[in-house]
Specification:
2 domains, eight-stranded mixed β-sheet, five-stranded parallel β-sheet, 16 helices, binds 3-acetylpyridine adenine dinucleotide
């Protein structure tokens, strides 16, 4: 079956891309989704304690005022069921489901140069073709289960948080081992500990965390969100990270130590990711950063009663926020429970999984269930699960073997008319994702409208554009402390054998957004467009739809 565009993935990105291409440009579009329903990351991530770290009044689409008026979030941070309900509402409102196919995993996408189209194959052997191929596969979707010796011998059950069973897991009375203390593990441990007989948290890298302070939203706040929609949208679209709060312009050195302590204390009490917005130079100046780092470490020591456990939790080896900063609900408090223990893998490494538990250097930890909160093969892993081949069989996997190479995180040379929403080299994971997604969807939609209006067959970046963009991405990262935390999934170091290259664009979403539109306004500067056989096929007549 042929479509004008095929979109892979039915999360925030896929839904909006379908709506934009179909309802604004009048294209024939099909969304193919591996999951059994829409939701993207929120379809898969159903682990205990899962909740979005972005606040609900910002973790949403901003393209429709009507949609914003209709939707009411119930808590400060939305949980997966509410996010799925929201996306379900969006799908119903814009009648999206009729063009979406679930349980349809795309396994291959090959560019057919003679026909100028993408040939797509699914795990069930279905075949589709499309002029434009858009990946909306998410940045953190490919689960990373470490290859621990002995895992296959384990007689209990094990689960990865990103592929959590929909029916849930009953921890009651069970001895549970959780590996991983990133954003996910920090959310999961307190909830698992509530019902487990015993929880052992295996920590390799100690992590900062700030209380989320989740709470039901008051009617006054819900009213405020509706009344101030334009302002909230304006802030989210003009800040560095797409959140609906501004980063302070003051530097740590601008205030006295007492004032600084009071500012951190207020941010700690308020909760959430705003903590990192307290000072302008937290991510660029080591000394400034260390004041925030020491503040959080002091909180850990004051919360956790057992001094040895507190020391292991506070023994953090990277600057605050140089790895993605988690927020939590009673994470450190959880270690005061009698049924919770911490194993510091730096001092007591895992030797193997046994039939009945995990053996570390100091001995056996008997377990019924192992929870892998071990993260993802981020940014490239999900794309590599698809055999993507461009012109003359150029394989994406091969092209990116030294690390991802893109222009703006949107396109790669030799892969004409393939667009990667929130691809590596774009702000993506350093932002409140829906805001970055909307910007990409709108840019791609405008780009495709431009191609069709001008009878342009293909668009792809010039090699030089990719080279200079890649250098710029690295240069931006080097200007921040993100570059100091080399052991981070931003660099791919969490996955064995993965090239170690800083992947997201850290120059700021506001700056990136401006740049993308400027490039488009200059006739897609840095891209190569093929006008050689520009005669528009009959289907192009259909694009004279509203919005073009
Ligand atoms: O994964 P992670 P995550 N042995 O890679 C450890 C987003 N997110 O799922 O640091 C022992 O951050 C690893 O240790 P180390 C968010 O962007 C969003 O927690 O590699 N330990 C680390 O502690 C986040 O950043 C929300 O030394 C091993 C942990 O596992 C991203 O998802 C909520 C190990 C992995 O941490 C990923 O977070 C949750 C091994 N072999 C997550 N391998 C929102 O609210 C790995 N680890 C939107």
């Amino acid at each position: 079956m042929h479509f004008d565009a095929i979109v892979i993935g039915a999360g925030f990105a896929g839904l909006y891309q379908l709506h934009a291409l179909r309802d604004r440009l009048g294209l024939k579009v099909r969304v193919l989704e591996a999951g059994g329903d829409l939701g993207g990351t929120w379809y898969w991530n159903r682990y205990p304690g899962a909740r979005c770290d972005s606040e609900s009044h910002a973790y949403r689409y901003f393209f429709s005022r009507e949609l914003a008026n209709e939707w009411q979030s119930s808590e400060r941070y939305p949980g997966p069921p509410e996010i799925r309900a929201y996306l379900g509402h969006v799908a119903e409102k814009f009648d999206l489901r009729r063009d979406m196919r679930f349980d349809t995993r795309v396994t291959a996408a090959h560019y057919d140069e003679a026909q100028n189209l993408w040939r797509i194959e699914t795990a069930r052997g279905e075949k589709f073709s499309a002029t434009y191929l858009i990946t909306a596969v998410g940045c953190i979707s490919a689960a990373n289960v470490p290859d621990l010796p002995g895992l296959k011998d384990f007689r209990g059950k094990w689960y990865h948080t990103g592929e959590w069973p929909h029916e849930g897991v009953d921890f009651r009375g069970k001895r549970v081992g959780q590996i991983g203390t990133g954003s996910t593990g920090i959310q999961a441990a307190p909830v698992i500990a509530e019902t487990a007989g015993h929880l052992t948290v295996f920590q390799r890298t100690a992590n900062y965390s700030v209380p989320a302070r989740n709470a039901p939203l008051t009617p006054e706040f819900q009213r405020w969100v509706k009344d101030n929609y334009e302002e909230i949208r304006g802030i989210a679209q003009t800040t560095v990270n797409g959140h609906a709060f501004r980063i302070s312009e003051r530097k740590v050195g601008d205030v006295t130590p007492e004032e600084r302590e009071a500012i951190y204390r207020a941010a700690w009490d308020y909760g959430g990711l705003q903590f990192r917005a307290t000072f302008f130079d937290l991510l660029t100046d080591r000394a400034a950063n260390s004041t925030a780092a020491e503040f959080v470490k002091a909180r850990i020591r004051s919360v956790v009663k057992d001094p040895a456990t507190a020391e292991n939790l506070a023994d953090i080896d990277h600057p605050y926020s140089a790895k993605r900063p988690p927020i939590d609900s009673d994470y450190f408090e959880t270690f005061n429970r009698p049924n919770v223990a911490l194993v510091n893998l730096r001092k007591d490494p895992i030797e193997r999984v046994t039939a009945t538990g995990i053996r570390t250097k100091s001995g056996e930890h008997p377990l019924d269930i192992i929870v892998f909160a071990t993260g993802f093969d981020a940014m490239t892993g999900t794309l590599f699960k698809i055999d993507i081949q461009g012109r003359a069989g150029k394989r994406l996997r091969e092209y990116w073997k030294g690390g991802p190479q893109t222009y703006l995180g949107l396109q790669m040379p030799g892969f004409p008319n393939l667009f990667t929403i929130t691809g590596p080299g774009s702000p993506s994971v350093l932002t409140n994702m829906p805001v970055a997604i909307e910007q990409h969807v709108e840019w791609i939609t405008d780009c495709i409208a431009h191609l069709r209006k001008h009878g342009i067959r293909t668009i792809e970046p010039a090699e030089e554009s990719v080279k200079s963009w890649g250098e710029h991405v690295q240069e931006c990262a080097r200007a921040t402390l993100l570059y100091d935390a080399k052991h981070s999934w931003y660099f791919g170091t969490n996955v064995e054998g993965k090239p170690q290259v800083f992947m997201p664009y850290s120059g700021g979403l506001h700056r990136y957004r401006k740049l993308c539109w400027e490039i488009a306004a200059k006739g897609y500067e840095g891209f190569v467009m093929d006008r050689s056989r520009a005669a528009a096929p009959a289907q192009f007549a259909a694009i004279a739809a509203p919005g073009v």
